[in-house]
Task: inverse folding
């Protein structure tokens, strides 16, 4: 399987990769940027979380209303929400608001029943924003919830997804996503956990793991209280991974400590471990 080297431009396919992918294009994933420099280019810091898969499915929606181009905005109607923290849903209400008159099908929000309840109670509650799940435009409903069954496979557009609970301060899911050819795991926000690793290790192969590394080691206490990883706890946790040769890309690094966290991740010296760059397309 072709591998992407973190930090370096994508290399042309090897002949082996061409053989593997002849009949199917690789899965394409971008961590959407959340801030831009004065030229309009994505900055390296990640403030919000939203992954775009194959230009049409989103995992979380932090920057969804800010960073999609016009074509992507037309195509994305399926959004998996891992948990209701603001950095993961910040611009979701604005995204639906923007599209409101034009939606010919509802925006589908895939989330666990607990998270759907929290979104309805705390965000789409007529106070913070309208309850879009009760509203229609000229074509029909504009937003629809799709409850995620815990631990069971479900379909999201062309993807097969399995979700399990991870260990965060609110109900949160980690995901394994497959397009039938490539498989990528998303940890979402978590600290030490078990079921997620069981799910990953059960998968016949794994091309990439996108995993959080929020705080530097010096902030282990805060990481523990808020249920996040530091490079040290992530390094220990990766001992539970049985797959070899996959790309392990750290995400969700708090911008204020970014360089320290990157230095500490590099010092772990774990094969395949790099940092995911916002705005860059990764192919697996
Ligand atoms: Zn969170
Ligand atoms: Zn977060």
Result:
């Amino acid at each position: 399987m072709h591998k992407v080297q973190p930090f370096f431009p994508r290399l042309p396919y090897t002949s082996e990769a061409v053989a593997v992918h002849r009949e199917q294009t690789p899965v394409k994933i971008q961590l959407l940027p959340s801030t831009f420099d004065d030229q309009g280019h994505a900055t390296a810091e990640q403030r919000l979380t939203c992954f775009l898969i194959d230009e049409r499915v989103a995992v979380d929606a932090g920057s969804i209303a800010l960073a999609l181009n016009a074509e992507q905005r037309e195509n994305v109607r399926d959004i998996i929400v891992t948990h209701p923290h603001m950095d993961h849903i910040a611009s979701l209400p604005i995204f639906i608001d923007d599209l409101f008159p034009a939606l010919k099908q509802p925006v589908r929000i895939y989330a666990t029943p607990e998270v759907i309840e929290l979104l309805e109670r705390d965000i789409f509650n007529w106070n913070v924003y309208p309850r879009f799940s009760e509203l229609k435009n000229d074509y029909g409903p504009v937003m629809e919830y799709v409850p995620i069954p815990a631990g069971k496979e479900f379909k999201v557009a062309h993807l097969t997804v399995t979700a399990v609970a991870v260990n965060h301060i609110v109900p949160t899911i980690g995901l394994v996503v497959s397009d039938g050819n490539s498989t990528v795991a998303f940890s979402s926000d978590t600290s030490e956990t078990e079921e997620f690793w069981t799910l990953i290790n059960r998968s016949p192969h794994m091309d990439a793991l996108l995993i959080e590394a929020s705080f530097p080691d010096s902030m282990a206490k805060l990481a523990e209280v808020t249920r996040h990883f530091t490079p040290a706890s992530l390094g220990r946790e990766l001992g539970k991974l049985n797959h070899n040769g996959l790309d392990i890309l750290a995400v969700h690094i708090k911008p204020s400590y970014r360089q320290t966290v990157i230095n500490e991740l590099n010092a772990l010296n774990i094969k395949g471990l790099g940092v995911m760059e916002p705005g860059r397309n990764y192919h697996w």
About this structure: Confidence is low (pLDDT under 50) at residues 1-22. DSSP finds ten helices and 16 strands in the chain. The pocket of zinc ion (ligand 1) is lined by residues 83, 85, 168, 189 (CB under 6 Å).
